[in-house]
Design brief:
With 135 residues, this protein is α/β, with parallel strands linked by helices. 57% of the residues lie in helices and 13% in strands. The chain contains 7 helices and 5 strands. It has a 5-stranded parallel sheet, sandwiched between helices. Helix 7 links the parallel strand 4 and strand 5.
Length: 135
């Protein structure tokens, strides 16, 4: 099964955030090929940095989790391939282009987006799905 994955699914998985961690773990067991806009890399670094600042994890743990993120096999897709469509969808929907980049990638790949983002799930119900919809 192929999917586009939102950074929040990666973050909840790496950080073991409850109650989403189990659902994310099951998603990662079942998905074969995953992709995300290259922006996911900066976003996950930011998430891990914030987790260190809030003392959820140690600096050493953040590096270990970043290495684990790299092993997830997420194909990073250039923003340049997505930016026009993302801009148009963002203007139409009123949702931030940062989030719409993931929707645009799923649309182009004719696949689904795994996300916990309530606004994306509501606005794009044919594309955005919770990770549990993949199993």
């Amino acid at each position: 099964m192929n999917a586009v994955v939102d950074t929040n699914v990666v973050a909840y998985y790496l950080l073991g955030t409850e109650p989403q961690a189990e659902e994310c773990g099951e998603f990662w067991k079942r998905v074969a090929e995953v992709a995300a806009p290259t922006s996911w890399q900066a976003e996950i670094v930011s998430v891990l940095w914030m987790a260190v600042r809030k003392k959820v994890i140690t600096p050493d743990e953040s590096v270990t989790k970043l290495q684990a993120a790299g092993r997830l096999g997420i194909q990073a897709v250039s923003l340049r391939q997505l930016w026009r469509g993302a801009l148009v969808r963002s203007i139409r929907s009123g949702i931030s282009p940062y989030d719409i980049l993931f929707v645009e990638l799923a649309f182009r790949r004719k696949t689904k987006l795994a996300t916990f983002d309530a606004q994306l799930l509501q606005t794009f119900p044919d594309i955005a799905k919770p990770p549990s919809a993949f199993f």
